Amino acid sequence: MKIALACFALAFSSVICTQPASAQDATPTAMPQTPPVLLKMIRDDAVHQELKLSEQQVDSVMDVLRDVDGVWFRSRNLPVDRQSEQVRMLTARLQSRLDQTLDPDQRKRLSELTVQALGTRMITQPHVVEALQMRDSLRQKLLDEFVETDRKALELQQQLNSGKLDAAAASAELAELEEDERKLYGDALTKQQRLTIGTLTGTPFDFSKIKRTEPMAPELMSEGVTWLQGEPTTLANLKGKVVAVHFYAFQCINCQRNLPHYNAWYRDYADKGLVVIGIQRPETSAERDPQRVAAAMKQDQLEYPVLLDLKSSNWNQWANTKWPTVYLIDKEGFLRRWWQGEMNWQGTPGEQQMRQTLEQMLAEE
Fold this sequence. Notes:
365 residues; alpha/beta; Glutaredoxin; 2 domains; six-stranded mixed β-sheet; 51% helix; globular
């Protein structure tokens, strides 16, 4: 991942990833998107090592993440303006806690990593603009260009969602947008400003080492829940295991087409540490009948734990919006990837991509 635009792709990750949110279908705002880089990177071991955090400091970071991650995760479905407001609030809360936890050298290095991660979007930060002594007119011109980039990225997302563009083509066009923005930004800076950026970013950091950029998975809820198969459990009790949680409804045809994939995962990886949990959230009256759900489970050969979410307590806790959706959770309880809809819809290699992520997580210490 290039340091000059380290997290630019993260700002538009929906174009090439598998977890589109309704917020990304909204019209871009007058300000360019700024990825929540602090929220994303502070949870990763590689960043903890770079900052030389003690075990006590890591515990403190995890405490505040437990406080902010649920709100952050559920905000993915909000309109862009409300989502941005939530992210700003959560980032400020996280930054305040980090200011109390980190020593001066660690705070300085974290600031450098943040500027690196923002890439061209670093000029959304007042202290960067001040250090660069950038004219207001130039900054506004660049911001306007960034908004146009966001608009084009949104078009790619919409074309991908509608099937007019495949993931490979979308990824290639996104790369062109990234390169165009890098060149525009670089050409606009004076030699002195480029030197100043070096003092703001410090030693280059290899962002490709970062594995965790998503929130902690929400905990499983018990209200209105009946475990139809397997013993009741919690994600906290499953720490150290890789977990696949999928929401489905047994009469949903798209769900039915995903079930064999979950069966195959359970068959192939259960002895390697994978736990699969199905959450049947009813859509029809038949799907509210435990006996009919259980009969369908037997017919579909589901051998892993399944719970019936009659009051939608888990559906709401996860802010789920679609049947089927499957979430992959790593051994530390962080979401790593999720997929809405059929994984192999119209030839999309979704199951293969999800399987690769599972194998990667299972191989991690």
